[in-house]
Amino acid sequence: MSLVNYLVLAGILFAIGSAAVLVRRNSIVAFMGVELMLNAANLTLVTFARMHGDLSGQVIAFFVMVVAAAEVVIGLAIIVSIFRTRGSASLDDASLLKS
Amino acid sequence: MTGLTISAGEGVLFWILAPLMVLGALSLLFARRTVHIAVSIAGVMVGLAVMYIANEATFLGVAQVVVYTGAVMMLFVFVIMLVGVDSTESLTETLRGQRWLAALSALGLAILLGAVVTRAVLPEPVGLAAANADSNPVAVARLVFSDFVFAFELTGALLITAAVGALSLTHRVRLGIKVDQRTLAEAKLKRYGAGGDATLVVNRPGPGVYARHNSADMPAVDAAGNPVEESITTVLRVRGQERELPSAEELADAGHPYGSPAVEAPTGTQAKEIDA
Amino acid sequence: MFVAPHIEWAALTPVLILLGAAVIGVLVEAFVPRASRRLVQLALSALAVAGALVAVTWRWTVVQSSGPRELVAGALREDGPALLAQAVLLVLSLLALLVIADRSRGEDGFAPTAAAVPGSEYEDQARRAGLAQTEVFPLTMFAVTGMLVFPAAADLLTMFIALEVLSLPLYLLAGLARYRRLLSQEASLKYFLLGAFSSAFFLMGLALLYGYAGSVRLDELAVAVPAMAGMDGLLLAGSALVIVGLLFKVGAVPFHAWTPDVYQGAPTSVTGFMAACTKVAAFAALLRFVYVVTPGLTWDLAPFLWTVAILTMVVGTVLAIVQTDMKRTLAYSSVAHAGFLLLGVIALDERGIGGVIFYLLAYGLATVGSFGLVSLVRTKDADGNVTSEAGHLSEWAGLGRRSPVLAVSFALFLLSFAGIPLTAGFTGKFAVFSAAVAGGAWPLVVVAVLASAAAAFFYVRIIVLMFFTEPPVAEDGSSTTVVRTEGLTAVAVVVCAVGTVLLGVVPSAILAITAQASKFLL
Amino acid sequence: MSVDLAATLVVAIPLLSAGVLLLLGRRSDGFGHWLGVAASAASCVLSVLLLLSLLGSPAEDRSVGVHLFSWIPAGELSVDAGFLVDPLSVTFLILITFVGTLIHVYAVAYMEHDDDRRRFFAYLNLFVAAMLILVLADSYALLFVGWEGVGLASYLLIGFWNQRTDYAVAAKKAFVMNRVGDMGLLIGMGALFATVGSVEFDEVFAAVPGLSEGWLTAIGLALLLGACGKSAQFPLQAWLGDAMAGPTPVSALIHAATMVTAGVYLIVRSGPIFEAAPTAQLVVAVVGAVTLLFGAIVGCAKDDIKKALAASTMSQIGYMMLAAGLGPIGYAFAIFHLFTHGFFKAGMFLGAGSVMHGMNDEVNMRGFGGLSRYMRVTWITFGLGWLAILGIPPFSGFWSKDKIIEAAFVGEGWQPWVLGGAALIGAGITAFYMSRLFFMTFHGEPRFNDGKNDQPGPEQHPHESPALMTVPMIVLALGSAALGGVLMVGESFFHWLEPVTGHVEHHEPVVPVPVLIAATLVLVALGVFLAWRQYWAARVPVTAPAGSVLTRAARRDLYQDVVNEAVFARPGTHLVRTMTYADTAVVDGAVNGLGAGAVGWGERLRKVQNGFVRSYGALMAVGVVLVLVAVLATRI
After folding, report:
1. Beta-carbon pairs below 8 A across chains A and D
2. C135 occurs within a structural domain
3. What predicted TM-score, i.e. pTM, was given to this entire model?
4. What CATH class has B10-85?
5. Highest mean pLDDT (candidates C41-55, C444-458, D365-379)
6. Fewer beta carbons within 10 angstroms: which end of chain A, N or C?
7. In chain D, count of helices (H) and strands (E)?
8. Residues of A in contact with D599 (CB under 8 A)
9. Full residue range of the structural domain in which residue C371 is found
C-alpha cells in the first residue's frame, strides 16, 4: 500500500466526473460530475499534504469545499430557474444559442 | 525527518473502499434514476471522508461529511425532488460521436493523471504526525487564520454572492394585495351572488378517491362521469404524470364501474346508479 | 504557537473599498425603499469603483517609490503589473457600470425580477409595477472585487478563490436579460456548467503543483521549478491544467466554445462588462503565472501555447466572418483578440507585459463602447413597440444615415478592433507584436498579421452595412430603431471613443506607464 | 515661417477643416464647400512656400527632418512621428495640393445639387490630409498611417453615392484589395523591424548595406505587394475600374493624380532597398511592363468613358512602375511622368465629368459623338490632354513618356528588348484607345437624340459646364500642354530631384535615341489613324437592344467593321477577352476564393458550435487531454 494509490483513485474519480459532464443530459447529474471532479482534486490535495507533511494541502481542500458549496447554491438556483421556465432540466433542451 | 509507515489496516480499508467508491461514481454514467445517482454520490462522499481521516485529516473528514453529505448532496436531492423525483433519463445518446469523445477523454485523463503520479519519483512520505501535534483541527485552524486568512475572508464574498444569487433567482416579491381565505370566500360568494354557478361556492373536488385509483394522479369524476382535470395538482399536470381516466364503456364492460375497480368490491354505489 | 498575521491594510484599500461597497449594496437591498434603491446602488457602486481607482493610483505611487512587496502573508503581491492591470480594470469597470446602470425608455437591460417565469402573468405584473433587479449592482461589485484580486494573487489558492468570486456573479448576471429570457437563462446555464468544469481542471492543476512543490505560492513554485528531478511530470501537467483554466476565462480555442453563446445570451451591458474586464483580469493572472512560474518550462509548454494561440487567432477570425448576429460577431472577434493577446504572453519578453496591458485597455475601451452601442439599437415591431436588441446584422443596415453619431462611433470601435492606425487598436497590436518579435515568436506574428488582415474584412462589412446599405424592409413591418438613453451610456461611449482615438494618436504617455510596469516581483 | 511649422500646417489645415465639417454637420452646409476649397488652397500656398524655401537653400541641404512627437515608444523599437521635407516630398506636395485645389473648385459646381456636398468636401479634405501625411512621413510607420488614411478616404468617397448597392460593393472591393496590398506593406515593415529594428527611412537605408540580399529581396517584394495594391498594378488591379463608381472629381483626384501613384512613390522612396535587391527590382519593372500593356489593352475594350480612363491610368502607372524598376536611372523619369500625368489625366477626368454633366450623367461613349460642337472648352482642354498622353511633341507627355521608353531600352541581354518593346508597343496602343475615346466622344455624328436626328432615347441637350468647372479644366490643360517642356528646360526637374534620386550618368539605349523617338511617333500615328478610321470616319454602332434594325448603310459599316475586326480587332478582341477573363476569373477568383475558402472553413467549424453544451464540454475535455499529451509527450 502506497500513497500513490490514493492519487490514482483520485485520477479515476476525476475522469469519471468529467465523463459525466459529457454524457449526461440531466443538468443536475452533469453538475454532480463536476462536484466529483472537485472532490477528486481534494483527495489529491489531502494525499499530497500527508506526503509532504504539510497541512496547507488540507487547508486548501477545506477552502475548496467552501467554494464548492457556494457554487452548488448558484448552480442549482440557475437549474431551478431554467426548470421553471421550460419544465425540463435537460442540457440538450438548452441549445437555442448556436451559430 | 521521520518517515511514515502506512499500516496494513489502511491498505485493507483502501482496497475495500476504493472499488465501492468507483462503483458509486460510475452510477453517474450508467444509472437511470437521478435519485439513485445522488445517493451513490453521497456514498462516495462518505468514502472520501473516511479516506481523509485515514490520511490524517480528521477535521476535513468531518467537514466532508457535514458539508458534502449533509449539505451539498441534500441540496441536490432537494432540487431533484423539485424537478421530478422519479423522472428517468433515457440513456440513448443523441449527439453523434459524443460517447466516443467522452470515453476517449475520460480514459485519456485517467491514464495521463495516473501515469503522472505513478511515474513521478515522489519523495518519501513524511506524514502529519508532527504537524498535527496539537490535534488536526487546531493545526488547520492556525493555518486558516494566519497564512490563508485572506483567502478565508475572500470566501465570505463567495458565500454572500451565493445567497444573493439564489435569492434573486428564486424569491418573488408579492405584488398586489395579499389574498387570504376570507377574501377568497367573499369573492366566491360575490360571484355567486352576481348570478354565477353554484359550483363556484363549494370546494373543487380532490383527485381520485376509490380503491386502486385513490392516488393523486387520477382525476376526480364529476356528476356527468367526466374527469375533472383541476383535481390533480399542478405539479403532476406540468410533468405530464396524471393518468388517463378509462372511458365509462371500458369500465362498464369490464364490470368496473367508476370508483370500484374490482368485481369483488362492494356494489350498489352511486356510480352504478349514474351508469344506469 | 499561533502568530497573528500582519495585514497591510493600506495596501488592501482598493479591495476593501469594493468589497465594502458590495456588502453595503446587499444591505441596501434589504433596507432602502424600492423607489430610491437604484439611485443609491448606482451612486454607491460608481463611488466605490472610482475610489478604488484613486486608491490604486495612490498605491502605484507608493510602489514606485518603495518597491513591490507581498501582502497578507504572501496571499497577494503588490507590484507594477498588478496595479496597472487593476487600474485598467477599474477604468473599464467604471465605464461598463455606466452602461449597466443606464436606462433607455425607463427600462434597464435586466429582467424586472429574475424569479418570474418568462412570459408569465407575474412577469407582466412585475414589469408594470416597475420592479428592478437592483441586486445587479452588488453582484457587479463582487465580480469587480474578484477581478481586482485575480491579477494580484500570489498563490494559486487565492487565484482560485478570486476566480470563483469573479465568476459566480457573472454566471448570475448572464441570466438576467430583460428580453429573450430563454436565451439569457440558457447562456447562464452554459456559462455556469462550463465554468465549473474548467475550474475543476484548474483545481486539479493546483493539486498537482502542490504535490510537486509542497506549496501553492507562485514564488515557491518558481524556486522549485529547476530543483526537483523526477517529478517534472507533475509540474508540467499541473502547469498545463492551471493554464487551461485561465485560457477558458480568456476564451482561447479550444476552450472558447462558451464565448459566443454567452455573449449573445447575456444582457448586452453585462456582455460588455465581462468581455472587457474578465479578459483584463484573466490575462493579468495568466501573465503572472506564465512569467513567474514557467520561464524554465518554455521548451515544454511552447508547442501547446503556440498551437493554442494560432488556433485562437484563426478560428476566431474565420468564424467571425460567417456570423450573422452582431453580438456573436463581436464574440468571435473577442476570441481572435485573445489570440493576439496570447502573443504577448508567449513572448516571455519584458515588453510583453506592458504591451498586453496596453492592448487590454485598447480592446476594453472599444468593447465597452461597442456593446454599449449595441444595447441601444433595438427592434421595433409594426405597432411601434420597441423590444429587444436588433441582433441580426441585416438589421443594422442603413444605420449610418439615421443615427450618424452612433454609427460613426461604432465604426471607430470597429476600426480599433481591426487595428487601423491612429486608433488604440493599432498601437496595442504594435506593442504586442513587437514584443513577440523580440521574444522570437515571429512566425506567430506572421499568422497574427494575416489574421488581422482577414479580420478587417468583417469589421469593414459592418461599416459597409451601416453606411452604404439600404435598411431592409421587413415583411411584418418591424424595423430598427435607436433608443434614447438616460445619458449614462452616452457618457461611457464618448469616453471610450475619445480614449480610443487618444491612445491611437498620442499613446506615448500610457505606453510609458505600461513600460514601467513590465516587471513582476518574484 | 519655419519649415517645421509650414510642414505641420500643410497637413493640419485640411485635417482640421475635415474635422470641422464633420463635427458641425448640417450647420456648415452653407459654407462647407468653400471652407474645403480654402483649406486645400492654404495647403497649396504653404507647399509653394516650402518649395521656395528649399530652392533657396543649397542642393545638399534640401532635406529637412521635422520631428513631431514620440508616437509609440516601445523600447528599442520605438517609433517617432516625423516629417521629411525633401525635393521628392515637396514635388508631391505641389502636385497634391495644386491639382487638389483645382479639383475642389471643380467639385463645388459638380456636386452642387448633392444634398451632402459638405460631407463630400469633408472627405476630400480628409483625403488630402492623409495623402500629405503619406508623402511627408519620415518612417514606414507614419507612411502606413497615411496609406491607410487615403484608403479609408478613398473608400468613403467611392461609396459616397451609397444609395446604389453596386457602388457600395465597388467601395468594398477597393478596400479589400487594398487590404491585401497593405498586408504586404505590413509584412515588409515587420521584416524591417526584425532585421533593422527600425522603420525610419534614414536608419533603414543606412542599415541596407549590412543586410543579406535574401532579406532585402523579401522586403522589396513585400513593399511591391503594397505598392501594387495601392497603385492598381498587376495582379491587384481589378478594383480601379470599379472605383469609378465614385463621383468624377474623386476619380480625377484619387484615382488619377494622387493616391494611385502612392505605390510609385513607395518604390522610389525605398530606392536604396531595391538597388540592393536586383531581383525585387526586376520584378518591379516586369510588373510595370505587364500592367502597362494590360491596362492599354483593357482600355481598348471599354465603352464607359470613366472606365476607359481608369484603364489608361493603370497603364500609365505601369509606365511609372517600369521606370521605377529600372533603378536610379528611372526614378526621376518615373516621378516626372507621375507629375505630368497628374495634370493631364486629372484634366481629362474633369473633362469626362463635364461631358457627363452635360449629358445627364451618361457614361457610355457609344451614346456620345460629335460633342465638340456643344462643348468647346471641354473639347479643347480634353484635346490638349489627349495630345499630351499620346506623347505628341511638345506636349507634356512627350517629354516624360519618351524618357521612360528610352530608359527602358537601356541595359544588357533580353531586358531592354522586352521592357523597351513593351513600353514602345504600349505607346502605340495608348494612342489607339485614347484616340478612340476622344473621337467617339467628341467627333463623328451624334449618337444620342439631339432632337434633330432619329436616335432613340430621351432628348439630350449637351451644354458647356459652368465656369467653376471649366476654369480648373483650362488650368490643367495648360499644364498638360506646357508643363513637361518647361520642366525639361535644362533638365531642371531632374536636377531638383537629384538629392533623392541621385545623379545618374547618361546611358545609351540599345537603339539610338532618334530612332526610338521616330519609332514611337510612327506607332502613335498608326494608332491614331486606326482609331480615326474606325471611330471618326466610320459610324460607330450604338450598342442598341438586341434585334434593332440596321440600315443598309449601317450594314455596310458593319461589313467594314467585320473586316476591321478580322484584321486588327479580332486578335485584339481575343487578347482583350483573355485579359478580361484573367481579370475576372483569376484575380477576382483568387480574391473571392480566399473569401470563399474562409467562409467554407467557417461553415465547417461552425458545426462545432451546435448549441449543445455537452459538445462544448467534449471539445474542452478533448482539448485538455491533447494538451496533456503534448506537454507530457517527452516525459512519459
Report:
1. 29
2. yes
3. 0.79
4. mainly alpha
5. C41-55
6. N
7. 25, 2
8. none
9. 9-516
